[in-house]
Amino acid sequence: MLAPMTEDPKFGEDDGTAGAAVQPRRRRGIYVLPNAITLAALFSGFYGIVMAMNGRFELACIAILAAAVLDSLDGRVARMTNSQSAFGEQMDSLCDMVSFGAAPALIVYIWGLKDMGKLGWIPAFVYIAGAALRLARFNVNIGVVDKRFFQGMPSPAAAAMVMGLIWVMDDAGMRGATKIDWLAWTAFGVTLFAGLSMVTNAPFYSFKVVGGRKTVPFVVLVVIALGIALIALDPPRVLFGIFCLYGLSGYAVYAWRKFKGQPVSVIAVSTDEPDEKGLHP
Question: Which residues make Cβ contacts (< 8 Å) with residue 148, sequence separation at least 6?
């Protein structure tokens, strides 16, 4: 007597595993557009260093300012195209360290600090160390900081302040500060101020809530148009003035909040993490 035939799952009905086994594995890749913009910002920082080594300080300053513009675009483009990634975040931080940390420190050292000897190392190293610490703190606190403000001066603004000084003086015919004592000490002070401002707790407005999908009054567009026209009249001096005012604005907001008895910390959410002890109000 023949035994009853049983259906072999290999040849009979699908048990739900066969289809899964033949599905090709998805390859993980990277998004081209935002990372290409980040790479362009990195190239601008590298180009600035090369131009400074060749004595072309005006081009070096413009390259760092161009890197700042590109840095402001890559994150926005990633959000608009829904192409954010952990790879892009890490790459952005590393490129920022080069374009707004190492490059400005080297450029200002070559331009005005190298003849001061080891004393000239101090502001340059404080600046590059401040940029590294600021970027590391930003990455750690990104989820708990009030999005309206930066905790400390952002590194692109600090770089723009230092580069603005060099651009203004170069435009005035002073190709270097190494032979001019007062100018070398001015570079010393501005670089030290920018480096320390990146690691303070002063709140600097982020402008992240402006633009995008939020509407603004018509007068805002008029002000922007007037600002562009003003910058076009004398780009070095106007831009340097704008970034100097921004560099002081964080301390003004800090003092105003202290005077009013308001919280001065920009940490929006407190946590129980031991590493964050003392960061929260």
Answer: 205, 206, 208, 209
Tell me how far apart the alpha carbons of residues 200 and 249 are, in angstroms, rounded to a whole number: 13
Residue 268 sits at the vertex; the CA angle it makes with 95 and 246, to the nearest 5 degrees, is 55
Q: What are phi and psi of 204, to 5 degrees?
A: -110, 130
CA distances from 154 to 11, 71, 89, 119 (A): 64, 11, 16, 26
Distance CA 10, CA 30 (A): 38
Other beta carbons less than 10 A from residue 281's beta carbon: 8
Instruction: Give residue 230's Cα distance to chain centre.
Output: 25
- d(Cα 111, Cα 113) in Å, to the nearest integer? 6
Closest listed residue to residue 52, CA positions, set 138, 162, 134: 162
Q: Tell me which H or E stretch contains 150.
A: strand 149-151
Q: What are the chain's domains?
A: 32-276 (1.20.120.1760)
- Cβ pair 89, 79 in contact under 8 A: no
| pTM to 2 decimal places | 0.81
Q: What are the structure tokens assigned to 262, written together?
A: 């308001």
What string of pLDDT tens digits covers the 281 residues of the chain? Answer: 445 544 454 444 455 554 555 555 545 566 788 889 999 999 999 999 999 999 999 999 999 999 999 998 888 887 888 877 888 888 899 999 999 999 999 999 999 999 898 999 999 999 999 999 999 988 888 777 777 888 889 999 999 999 999 999 998 888 777 778 899 999 999 999 999 999 998 899 887 655 555 677 888 888 889 989 998 999 999 999 999 999 999 999 999 988 888 877 777 544 444 444 444 44
151 forms beta bridges with 203
